[in-house]
Design goal:
The structure holds 3 protein chains of 3 kinds.
Chain A (H helix, E strand, L loop, with lengths): L1 E6 L1 E2 L10 E3 L4 E3 L7 E2 L1 H17 L2 E7 L5 H10 L3 E5 L9 H15 L4 E5 L10 H9 L3 E11 L2 E8 L2 E8 L2 E5 L11 H9 L4 E2 L1 H4 L14 E6 L8 E2 L5 H11 L5
Parallel strand pairs in A: 1-6, 1-8, 6-7, 7-13, 8-12, 9-12
Antiparallel strand pairs in A: 2-5, 3-4, 9-10, 10-11
Helix pairs in contact in A: 2-5, 3-4
Chain B lengths: L13 H26 L10 H17 L8 H30 L5 H32 L8 H28 L5 H4 L3 H10 L4 H29 L5 H10 L30 H9 L5 H5 L1 H4 L6 H18 L10 H4 L3 H5 L6 H5 L6 H15 L5 H13 L32 E4 L1 H6 L1 H16 L16 H5 L3 H17 L4 E4 L2 H10 L8 E4 H10 L11 E5 L13 H9 L3 E4 L29 H11 L4 E4 L2 H10 L7 E4 H8 L5
Parallel strand pairs in B: 1-2, 2-3, 4-5, 4-6, 6-7
Helix pairs in contact in B: 1-8, 1-10, 3-4, 4-5, 5-7, 5-8, 9-10, 10-13, 20-28, 24-25, 26-27
Chain C lengths: L12 E4 L2 E2 L2 E2 L1 H17 L3 E6 L7 H6 L4 E5 L9 H15 L3 E5 L2 H14 L2 E6 L1 E4 L6 E7 L4 E6 L6 E5 L16 E4 L12 E7 L12 E5 L6 H13 L3 E4 L1 H5 L20 E5 L5 H4 L7 E6 L12 E4 L2 H17 L1
Parallel strand pairs in C: 1-4, 1-6, 4-5, 5-12, 6-11, 7-11, 14-15, 14-16, 16-17, 17-18
Antiparallel strand pairs in C: 2-3, 8-9, 9-10
Helix pairs in contact in C: 3-4, 5-8
The chains are: A alpha/beta, B mainly alpha, C alpha/beta.
């Protein structure tokens, strides 16, 4: 079975709030120095899901990442977990795409790779978190789409996917090929070890440009973007915390109770 | 002239030698078979530096075998084993003297003979006393860590029989030949004398035939026990295996894991018994199931599933299956983890090394556990989720404190301290390596900052790496994720070299141990000192002066990786004693017998088995018992663990050594 | 936009209705409230699409909550959500009705449906919006949504694609006020689902029972962080919560420690809650946690560390060891109850 996993490199989500800076003009986040980018958490779980299927059914995993040349790091990470091949999609024309543009580029690369049974994406990116690329990609490729998977089983060309709901879960059956987006409930990603780690060190990660995947540049025209970000901002809370006074913790507690009297 | 005739009354006495030779051959063959079992293990470099090895061996034999240093830490069982051991040595020498005198024709006579008789009999007394203590302990007292099997009973009973019959034979001979003509001689063999008095009224014929019968009974029993020991590979074999094991003991740093060659390694840790090295298999046979390790194990003391004794015995059981299963196909080979030690046992260890310190025969428990963890982590990707979170964080963010970065970045602690922070291309002689906990966790950041102030006050010229510092790799290595450690070690060594660093001051004993003892295998040779050593030097040189009084009764908790791993016990205590008005009290378990805080071996992050007492709580209970107001330590894990476990911070405070030093420094006026 | 239509062919605000236990789902009433406001600002009409075997019965109610038009897709096939069927049918429906704005709840259904529907309709979608405005000059819908795990927010518009779609977080907007005298139009949509489009089928649905008050529904939550120290200490939090008729939540680190089940986790990777009262005990207030409780009406923080980030978002703060505060709180509330 051949699984293609789409992964994204994102700024480390673990940043102290006080260090979180944005450039409101460029509408970009400025990561603090010394904090390297990481693979988006949900995408890493998608790789884990693919590896679990490979553990069971053998086959092959291909990883693609749309991003900068540094995205080879996350592709390499996926290979160290157990993926076989990886490609980075990098081109000036691919910068600052909306969900449709991203899905279009990924779709072109996937069509070039071809011969797949399953496409996995993270449920959303850990940075902009639009949560749409997977579904739109599925629509572009004309595949059944199953979102928020927490368990994926495959049996002769048929998928059985457990997906999470707010108060439980449901099990969905769909024919392959299909596109599934993976949620964190699938479990922690494995630690890279053994041969895969060596393979990842040596592996050549080709970089595909727009022309390599036959992307139509007019499709990526910014003026045709479906959505546009007009502003980004860090919320400031006007409210000030009222510190409850008291000589002892017990006194403070008593004072708090009277403050909350109307509420409880 | 007092003397006795060897082989008096016994004809065909040489038959004993024939039987003994056969028994000895079988006995030796049992070692050969065992040797073949050990040989199934992987290679281990224990034949290098043979000269040093012999030196260490002799030293260890004197201290730990002749003087019973480790045994005597448990007085009752220590004295018990000491008496049996020396009893046997005496009897062995006595027998040798007998044999030599018989065949050389040179007989002991007169006073030397009488003294010889007395000492030989004393040997028997010692053994009997030891056996009595042993039987009492094993069958009446029954300490929890002592596991009795049939072999124990067989050995105790047969040894008793051998000694008693020995006395009886002596008594019968004395009754026949000595007690009447030379009663003053007989009294020099008090064991025999008692029986001689008892048998005095028997006819000489009866004495002779009883003597003959018992003599043969005694001899055959002794030979029989040797035979039994060989065939059953009884505990008695430890008289050979234990010294052998001591001979091959590790001469390197304590519990330093061996590197895995990422490029070539086919075996990732130990997944089946043959993946252990031959020395690790020898260890399993050297263990006599004495339970000393179990008694001191912090995991066992807090009701966790791990007992180092049981772990070694289970592994031994598995090794024996190897010999009986060798004809079977590999498919039905029993899987080691689960059938032998369980995952829960393997993950419960804090690598505190109390077990290894307690083991009289130098069994190396910790590396076995790390090897088993390596297999779980590297080959099976199986580990507690808390371990995985920690290891993932090391991999992604270069430190084990998952989540900590949401509050503070690695270099944030340096803000406003006016420190030399190394940038690319900077060269410095002395680096202060603060460690992940010291850089990221609130309470420990306070300690780190205090340390920089003290060093500055003493005029030490040092720099820090700030945000450029990553983990030393210790938590990954102890948790079995060797690759991550190797990556970090190589990277750190490169960083040290690029800044021309010669000397590294560490604030964490775990960093200290790994950089000092384990980095050299990766090409990193640096002078590594723990800050307690440095402070002690600075105090001696009077570059620091402790003048402020601190009215405190305190105790010092030895961090495992500073104490047992590196033998640093005195520096911290000397420093504390220099603080005016400080009273230093020792806990019942201190120095090499110190009890772990629960944070080592990755357990700062790997959760303790739910529903069991926290190891740190147990330690705090011990602190409370000696009624002090402060527990001082010099390890960020210990401090963190104690802070979490001290319920009432008004009655007991946890402090780092450097904080005490700073408090006592003379404030510049 | 699929082609053919121009921007101006799209008119009106449409709400995608959801039915829960035979009634209008709370989120739908909230959407009708904000939808009404947006429609009024634009001077356009507000419609709602109700789907399901008994959807028609709720049409009147939807009008009472502010809808001008109720489209009813009365097919029992819709009673259970099926991604393929819903996507296909709603996409067809929207291509006929051409709404300018499509409001969808950020619910199980909305999270799955909205992006797929958008892929079909080729509109512009913002997920998990916490604020909606109409830009006065361009008349475009401006959706504000969290980015970077809630560390920042982005305003998103769709200039050249229609419909302007948005999924809206629950309990952000107040529910619409009911007015049974309101008038509106009920339109039955005759079209049926083409069964051949249904490729992925739901074969099982399992509801997980949660003991006591559900975290998302609780009016009062006592939440503990790593500073609580042990599972045993969490008992104190439970006692306070039970006393107040609320429940207990926790940070990721406390869950990681195994002190409390992961289902109790609040924050970016856990549940998002908005109770009346949120008592944060010994938790420092990492952003990944705070995003899960920012919607609370009142946050009380109890922490030893006066610098803890939680005080930046709390309404009331106590700087002290929680172990000394909680017993007194429990006692005082008990007194209040009995007195």
């Amino acid at each position: 079975m051949h699984t293609i996993v789409c992964v994204k490199q994102v700024p480390d989500p673990e940043i102290p709030p006080a260090k979180f800076k944005i450039d409101p003009v460029a509408k970009k986040v400025i990561p603090p120095p010394g904090v390297p980018p990481v693979i988006s958490v949900y995408d890493e779980r998608a790789v884990e899901a693919a590896c679990r299927l490979k553990d069971k059914h053998k086959g092959k995993i291909t990883v693609i990442s749309l991003g900068t040349e540094k995205a080879t790091d996350v592709v390499r990470h996926a290979i160290s977990m157990g993926a076989d091949d990886g490609y980075v999609l990098q081109d000036e024309a691919f910068e600052n795409l909306d969900s449709f543009g991203t899905a279009y580029v990924l779709g072109k690369a996937i069509q070039k790779i071809g011969g797949y049974d399953l496409i996995l994406c993270g449920r959303q990116a850990a940075d902009w978190g639009a949560g749409q690329v997977g579904s739109i990609l599925g629509e572009i490729l004309g595949l059944p789409v199953i979102t928020l998977a927490c368990d994926i089983q495959a049996e002769d060309k048929k998928l059985k996917v457990k997906r999470i709901l707010k108060d439980g879960f449901e099990v969905i059956e769909a024919p392959m090929p299909a596109l599934v987006t993976v949620s964190s409930e699938i479990g922690l990603p494995r630690l890279p070890a053994g041969m895969a780690l060596m393979l990842a060190r040596r592996k050549q990660i080709p970089i595909w440009k727009a022309k390599d995947i036959g992307a139509d540049l007019s499709e990526l025209d910014r003026s045709k973007a479906h959505t546009e970000i007009t502003e980004i901002f860090i919320p400031t809370r006007e409210m000030k915390c009222e510190m409850i006074s008291g000589a002892t913790p017990a006194e403070m507690a008593a004072n708090l109770v009277s403050k909350l009297a109307t509420m409880i | 002239m007092a003397f006795r005739e060897v082989f008096w009354n016994i004809s065909y006495g040489y038959l004993v030698y024939v039987l003994a030779l056969i028994a000895l051959a079988i006995w030796l063959f049992s070692f050969y078979r065992r040797y073949q079992l050990w040989r199934q293990g992987r290679p281990d470099e224990r034949f290098r530096e043979i000269g040093e090895r012999i030196g260490v061996f002799i030293q260890t034999v004197i201290v730990d075998i002749f003087v019973h240093r480790k045994f005597l830490r448990q007085p009752f069982s220590g004295i018990m084993h000491l008496t049996i051991f020396w009893g046997f040595i005496i009897l062995l020498l006595a027998s040798a003297v007998d044999a030599i005198s018989y065949y050389s024709g040179y007989h002991l006579q007169g006073a030397p003979y009488l003294w010889f008789s007395l000492i030989s009999d004393l040997g028997g007394f010692l053994i009997l006393a030891g056996i009595l203590m042993a039987a009492f302990r094993r069958y009446l007292w029954k300490p929890k860590s002592l596991n009795s099997v049939l072999d124990d009973g067989i050995l105790l009973a047969s040894m008793t029989a051998i000694i008693i019959t020995g006395y009886m034979i002596e008594g019968l001979r004395q009754a026949a030949t000595e007690i009447r003509p030379h009663p003053d001689w007989a009294i020099w063999s008090p064991g025999g004398w008692v029986f001689a008095k008892l048998f005095i009224d028997l006819s000489e014929g009866a004495l002779r035939s009883w003597h003959k019968f018992l003599w043969w009974f005694h001899s055959v029993l002794t030979i029989g026990i040797i035979l039994y020991s060989g065939l059953a590979f009884s505990k008695l074999q430890h008289v050979i295996v234990s010294p052998l094991n001591i001979f091959f003991r590790s001469l390197g740093p304590l519990a330093a894991p061996s590197p895995i060659d990422i490029e070539k390694a086919e075996i990732m840790g130990v997944g089946e018994i043959k993946d252990f090295t031959w020395k690790q298999l020898l260890d399993l046979d050297a263990c006599t199931n004495c339970g000393r390790c179990e008694d001191v194990c912090p995991a066992w003391a807090t009701n966790k599933p791990l007992s180092p004794r049981k772990l070694v015995q289970d592994l031994k059981g598995h090794m024996l299956k190897l010999s009986s299963n060798s004809v079977h196909s590999p498919e039905i080979r029993p899987s080691l983890i689960g059938e032998g030690p369980t995952e829960a046992e393997i993950w419960a260890c804090t690598t505190c090394a109390a077990c290894q310190e307690a083991c009289p025969v130098y069994v190396e428990h910790i590396l076995k556990i790390i090897d088993l963890r390596r297999h779980l982590v590297l080959a099976q990707n199986k580990m507690p989720e808390s371990a995985q979170l920690m290891l993932r964080n090391m991999q992604m963010r270069g430190h084990p404190w998952a989540g900590a970065q949401s509050l503070r970045l690695r270099g944030d602690w340096t803000t406003n301290l006016d420190l030399k922070i190394l940038a690319e291309g900077d060269h410095i002689n002395t680096l202060l390596w603060v460690g992940c906990t010291g850089a990221l966790v609130d309470r420990n950041v306070e300690v780190t900052v205090s340390l920089t102030r003290v060093l500055k006050a003493a005029g030490v010229d040092f720099a820090v790496l700030g945000e450029g510092e990553t983990c030393c790799g210790d938590p990954a290595r102890r948790a079995g994720y060797e690759f991550q450690f190797q990556l970090m070690a190589e990277q750190n060594i490169e960083i040290f070299k690029s800044h021309h660093i010669q000397e590294i001051i560490t604030s964490c004993p775990h960093c200290y141990n790994i950089i000092k003892n384990e980095y050299p295998k990766y090409g990193g040779q640096f002078k590594v000192i723990h800050y307690s050593q440095l402070l002690w030097d600075l105090l001696k040189q009077e570059k620091l002066n402790l003048l402020n009084e601190i009215h405190s009764t305190l105790t010092y908790h030895d961090p495992c990786y500073l104490g047992r791993y590196n033998g640093l016990y005195s520096e911290s205590r000397e420093i504390l004693k220099m603080i005016p008005k400080v009273t230093l009290k020792e806990m019942k378990r201190s120095k090499e017998r110190s009890f772990c805080c629960g944070g080592g071996g990755g357990h700062m992050w790997i959760e303790e088995q739910p529903g069991t007492q926290k190891i740190s709580q147990k330690r705090i209970e011990e602190v409370m018992k000696i009624e002090v107001d402060t527990v001082v330590t010099s390890c960020p894990y210990c401090l963190q663990m104690f802070e979490e476990s001290i319920e009432n911070k008004d009655s007991l405070k946890a402090k780092d050594l450097v904080e005490m030093v700073e408090l006592s420094l003379k404030k510049s006026s | 936009m699929m082609g053919g239509e121009t921007m101006n062919s799209y008119k009106g605000v449409m709400v995608l209705g959801e039915i829960a236990e035979g009634r209008l789902a709370p989120i739908t009433i909230e959407l009708l409230g904000i939808g009404r406001r947006l429609a009024d600002e634009l001077g356009e009409e507000l419609s709602v699409l109700m789907m399901g075997g008994k959807a028609g019965a709720l049409a009147r109610e939807a009008i009472a909550y502010g809808a001008d038009k109720v489209y009813v897709g009365e097919d029992s096939l819709f009673d259970e959500y099926n991604s393929d069927a819903y996507t296909q049918w709603i996409a067809n429906f929207c291509q006929k009705t051409l709404p300018s704005i499509l409001l969808i709840g950020h619910t199980d259904i909305g999270c799955d449906l909205a992006p797929r529907l958008n892929g079909r309709l080729r509109g512009g979608l913002a997920m998990d919006a916490v604020d909606l405005k109409i830009d006065p000059s361009t008349k475009l819908l401006v959706s504000t949504r969290p980015i970077f795990g809630g560390n920042a927010y982005a305003k998103v518009v769709s200039k050249s694609a229609r419909p302007q779609m948005v999924t809206i977080r629950t309990k952000i907007f107040p529910p619409a006020e009911r007015n049974d005298s309101r008038q509106g139009q009920v339109i039955l949509v005759e079209e049926k689902v083409d069964p051949s489009v249904v490729k992925a089928k739901v074969v099982d649905r399992i509801k997980e029972e949660v003991e006591g008050v559900k975290l998302e529904d609780a009016e009062i939550i006592v939440s503990g962080g790593h500073g609580v120290g042990s599972a045993k200490n969490f008992e104190m939090l439970w006692e306070l919560a039970r006393l107040l008729g609320g429940t207990v939540g926790a940070t990721r680190r406390a869950c990681d420690e195994g002190w409390i089940p992961v289902t109790r986790q609040i924050g970016q990777s856990g549940k998002v809650v908005s109770p009346k009262l949120y008592i944060a005990v010994a938790l420092s207030g990492a952003m990944s946690h705070i995003v899960g409780c920012l919607g609370s009406k009142c946050i009380v923080a109890i922490n030893k560390d006066p610098e803890a980030n939680i005080f930046n978002v709390a309404h009331f703060g106590i700087v002290a060891d929680y172990k000394e505060v909680l017993p007194v709180l429990i006692q005082k509330f008990k007194e209040q109850r009995s007195g």
